[in-house]
Structure formats: structure tokens, C-alpha cells
Design a protein that fits this description.
alpha/beta; Rossmann fold; 7 helices; binds flavin mononucleotide; UbiX-like; FMN
Amino acid sequence: MNQINNKAITLAFTGASGAPYGLRLLQCLLAAEYQVHLLISSAARVVLATEHDMKLPGNPQAIQETLVEYLGCDSEQLQVYGKDDWFSPVASGSAAPKQMVVCPCSSGSVAAIAHGMSDNLIERAADVVIKERGQLILVVRETPFSTLHLENMLKLSQMGVTIMPAAPGFYHQPSSIEDLVDFMVARVLDHLGIEQKMVPRWGYDSR
Ligand SMILES: Cc1cc2nc3c(=O)[nH]c(=O)nc-3n(C[C@H](O)[C@H](O)[C@H](O)COP(=O)(O)O)c2cc1C
């Protein structure tokens, strides 16, 4: 794969509830002309089928073709890797993008990342971003949180990882599920430094 510009990011979907957050974030990153390295866990495929009626094939190349068609993006802009694609750019600090978002992020992936397991490409890519002191954002979804979940998130936060629970606010007066999804995605984009007009910034823009 050629690097098409210096705006590259790793995005991972894991098996927490909240597939629409991940899909919307992917759409926004592509619209912002980012080159997206996408990783999808097998549990995330189950969640996508359950929550979004989107049945993705198992093979990364076929997933890529399906998403390129679904999103109408340029195939150079979106690259999907499998869980054992150890030769992909995201697996090494010498090539991995400096920014990564796991959205949605399961409590299982939080635990694996907090303990540096690197047992699949999502865990390895997160480990690389942490060791390279890049920006890692985890959009975690679980309720309630157990002490173990909270300890894992604290450990990650102390390492500079941003923990953004999938907990949309209501002060923008959402009138649809899309508004709630956009609230979360807008906050992630704000943290990534990507301009967004989906949700007005508090105290600056009025509705
Ligand atoms: C429909 C569905 C919803 C789920 N929701 C959550 C969730 O909100 N949070 C969570 O931590 N796990 C959730 N799980 C369980 C995870 O998918 C499971 O622990 C899985 O092993 C996570 O693997 P991954 O992190 O590699 O994707 C859900 C599973 C399914 C099938």
C-alpha cells in the first residue's frame, strides 16, 4: 500500500456495543481525507451484524471491498488488515500512524491493551502507539464498570491513553440516534484535532 499523504490513522472496531460510532467515525475520517488502516475483531463483526445489519465477510480483502463500496471511498484511502497481518504498517513503530482510535472498545480489549498482550493486530497496534508515545483513544463501552475495568482504564490513562466512555451528552438536544452518535464521534474528532461541525462547541457556537 502506498502512503497517499501524511494524514494516516489506525482505527479498530472491537466487540463492544456501539458499532454505529465506529462506522460514523470511519466515514468522518475518510471525509477528512485521512488514510485509514482499519482493524476489525471477529466479535466486532458479530456486533456489526447485530446492531447495523451489516454482515461483513471474514477475509480482510473482501471486507475492504465491501466497505469501499458501502462508503463510496477511494480504495487507496482504506486498508483493512486481518488479526495476524504482522507485516502491516500498524504492527511496527517504524511505519505505524501516530494516532489510533479503538471505537467501540470492549472491556476485553481494554484489558489486553492495558497488559501489553499484543496477541492480535489490534492489541499489537495499540501497544505500538503507546510505546511510540503517540495518541491512543479508547471509546470504551460497558456498564456497569467492574473494579477490574476501572483499574485497567486507570493504568492506561496514567500512560497517556485517552479513555472516552461511549457516554453521549444530551445538552445538544438530540432528536435522533444519529445525533447521539455524532456527539461521541465529534468529541473523538476534537481530540484528534480534526475540524468538525456536527456538534457546536460549548460556549462558542449556538444551535
Ligand atoms: C452484540 C454484542 C454486544 C456486546 N457488547 C459488549 C459491550 O458493550 N462491552 C463489552 O466489553 N463487551 C461486549 N460484548 C462482548 C465482547 O464482544 C466479547 O468480550 C469479545 O470477546 C470482545 O473481543 P474483542 O475485544 O477482541 O472484540 C458484546 C458482544 C456481543 C455479541
